Batch of 2 targets.
Target 1
Amino acid sequence: QLLSTLWFYATGQFQMSDGDLIGLNQSTVSRIVHRISRCIAKSKSNFIKFPTNLQREKESFYVIAGFPSVVGAIDCTHVAISTPGGGEVFRNRKGYYSINVQAIRSFDRQFTNVVVRWPGSTHDSRIFENSIIHDRFENDDINGMLLGDNGYACKGYLMTPLLNPSSDAERRYNKSHIKTRSRIEQSFGVLKQRFRALRIPLRTKLDNSLVIIVAIFCLHNFAMTSRI
């Protein structure tokens, strides 16, 4: 069952193809994938957790381009899904149906926070403002800052690029910011290259698609920790 599920995650093939390969029919493979995905997703807190050694994160991020006090880079990525029951609210700005997934990346290439529940039309800033991690930063529970793109509002704990830098200092700020924040875009690329199920529309029920996405993020962190 586990190997069947991993094959589905890795290839992104239809479940019928998966079933033909291992001698199972589509309905059986479907039930297996959903069952195993839920088992993995239930262990999310064991795989996806915000770092406790924030000083180490700050020092590691600083080495990249000299940006101080950074404890994570934040961004959203769209995971395509087949036509959902919710209709047009899932259609993103590029015209296809998706789940807009928010994630924060640590220096060591792991995702330290993931939010998987918002339809594709939802703006990145709204997802963040309604997240638990936002409240933690607002309440000063986390001593440090995030780096995000211009889809987010600039705050004391969330720095964004300057739209029109006019001085050398502002241009140096933007260069440092972009070079440091780009790590999360690289991680999204690695994630979708390793788990190709996230590169094609997930043709499962919406609830099952959300669980599959969470499970894949968990496995990515497991792979990073295990150096696979």
Target 2
Amino acid sequence: MKDRLRADKPWVLLFWSIAATFGTYFCMYMFRKPFTASAYEGETLGSFKFKTVIVTSQVLGYTLSKFLGIKIVSEINPQRRAWLILTLISLSEISLILFGLTPTPYNLIFMFFNGLPLGMVFGLVIGFLEGRRMTEVMTAGLCVSFIVAGGLAKKVGKHLLDFGVQSHWMPAVAGILFLPVLIGFVWMLTQIPAPTSADEDARSQRVPLNREDRRAFFRSYSFGLTSIILAFLLITVLRGIRDDFAPEIWKALGSDAKPDDFFFPDLIVGLGVLVTCGATAFLRNNRGAFYCALGLSILGLVLVCFALIGIRAELLSPFSFMVVLGLGLYIPYVAVHTTLFERLIAMTRSKGNLCYLITLSDSFGYLGTVFLMLGKDFFNTGNFVKDFFDLIGWIVAIVGIVAFASAGIYFARVGSAFKEPQQDIAAQPMTQQV
């Protein structure tokens, strides 16, 4: 199959790659997110709500996984990625089973161990796609998986609860249902051929990075990378709150959460982000695509401001608010994953890989989420949306816009030394650029 995909028409490889990576990461979400569909009413741990504790516990494990992944994901031999994905997700399912078996509150430790393997999966999956002339389209398709899967995972969890599955066993049951499907999609990953020589000429060759390689790359562009990572951290925090506490947000907006309320707003957001971020693949100039992605990221945060104003002024319905807010958060979130780091490596021609930069930014993003999860119950003294969520939203939007703009100014100043690939390579018809 790998040889056939290499020899077949480019669009066949494109859709195969999107399907394989989308499906793999979509299934991973069924081991991570269904538990958030339950409010765990009446369960507490000291002054904390039990749901806040287990969400924080999982995110803490997920965050630690990201930091471990900076080394593991950036250094791994490409031939070992698929087996590691299956191993990590299997370990997360075992943790969910132990979560169901163990009484509250002792079972919260197993939610930590559920998150611990899963944080490395995205970096491993994206490694199959980077360094290609159609990487943005492929990774946009992959990123749609976590936009759509978050809502669908909660929908699956809600349906399992409605069918009578006990809330502590519901996460494990959801994972078991999707395990066979996951295996099929991971097999599809193994059939994706390596980038062609033309891909490498246009985007630069991607190689594993050791510790010194990673340090050298970061030192070369430290201010610009720090600015992007800061904005990404803030966006990740607000995105995590929107995702993990969707039932509470819908309730605060005056709407009872139904399964479709979790799914359809995210479906609209996913399609919008796929078109917006995937289109940057058709910008052949790496520098131009990089700045276009920065502009899209700033535009997304402007949408966040509009959503916050609209819901407070009652100009937006709860459904519209979730859609506009989702677009505002996911456009920059996905732009970083699909374009900013991919084109940064391509335009600098530096020794690097997308796995490293994505995992590095994710690490700090989820670390911020841990602190916000702990602070939510301290600062949320009234309406969740109008008090805590509204405040965090404005901080994210304003600081994020400044950070992205600062990164743009920085790279504009140092960009004169960057050399674009030869025009004859960059100008090849897009039908040949997979």
